Amino acid sequence: MSFDIRPLSDAIGAEIIGLDAGQPLDDAVFAAIHKAHLDHQVLVFRGQSLTPRQQIDFSKRFGPLDAHPTQATNHPDGYPEILTVSTRTENGKDVGLRNAGPQWHSDLAYRERPALGSMLYALELPDSGGNTGFANMIAAYDALPAPLRNAIDGKRAIFSSKREGTERPHPAIRTHPETGAKSIFVNPQLTTGIEGMDDTDAAAPLADIYAHCAEERFIYWHCWEPGDLIFWDNRCVLHIADHSRLDDPTYIRHMHRTTIAGDVPY
Fold first, then answer.
1. By CB neighbour count within 10 A (0-12 exposed, 13-18 middle, 19+ buried), where does 32 fall?
2. In the chain, what is the straight-line distance between the N-terminal and C-terminal CA atoms, in Å?
3. Partners of 245 in the beta sheet?
4. Are 122 and 261 in contact, with CB atoms under 8 Å apart?
């Protein structure tokens, strides 16, 4: 199976053209995709037509899957590995997670083993809006001003989830387990402080780091096309969803997400 890899921006990301993720992949093809994912951090597989089972099987090539804590928004037809991200309603109720990712974050960062990566597959898209931003935290770390780097280097950030009632520290500067690259591992949606620091003292450097990470030079904004499947590396990428039309009843954005389980950050 042959395919092309085309960078999407100078900051992050590449698109994969000509690969059918619904078909079995031999080891050589998988190795090439895996390398591309490590090289570009975000991969966009164009023109896919996937059943839930095919998305699950493709995702599992990269590791065991992690269930989302909001079980009520999992796929209703016997696929608990799939989280439904949707603005659809049925009988007055949301069929999926409506307001997913309103701030920059990495998925499940509050768990002992945060997600390795996530795959989001577009089934239905609005005529406008609903873009997703991806930010390169390796590049952001490399460009981090010395005072901000010194403020968090060697420290552990506190991550919290109100939904799960958990709080857990992880290194604020994380080392990628496969490439050895260092990246910023804090985010405004889930990070609540720095271990051993008063919250007031931690607020200013964290706010400055968040502003640094959100600079356009580190970001690729993806405008979705039908059949797009995006796989991003949660270990070194932040992402955010554009929800500017969330209250518009004509705005339909319906997607399936699988999440690959990760390891303990160090």
1. middle
2. 36
3. none
4. no
Report pLDDT digits (tens) over 167-198: 999 999 999 999 999 999 999 999 999 999 99
CATH number at residue 54: 3.60.130.10
Nearest alpha carbon to residue 83 among 92, 94, 71: 71
| pLDDT tens for each residue of 60-103 | 999 999 987 765 566 767 899 999 999 999 988 988 898 888 89
As for how many domains the chain has, the answer is: 2
* One domain for residues 122 and 209: no
Among residues of the chain, what percentage have pLDDT more than 70?
97
**Does residue 70 share a domain with residue 15?**
yes
Residue 208 lies in a domain: yes
For residues 119 and 167, state if they share a domain. no
C-alpha to C-alpha distance for 49 and 226, rounded to whole angstroms: 9
- What pLDDT does residue 193 have? 97
Q: In b/e form, how buried is each residue of 45-65, taking b as 16+ CB within 10 angstroms? A: bbebebebebbbbbbeebeeb
Position 266 in a domain:
no
Provide the whole-model pTM.
Answer: 0.95
Domain boundaries, position 159: 137-213
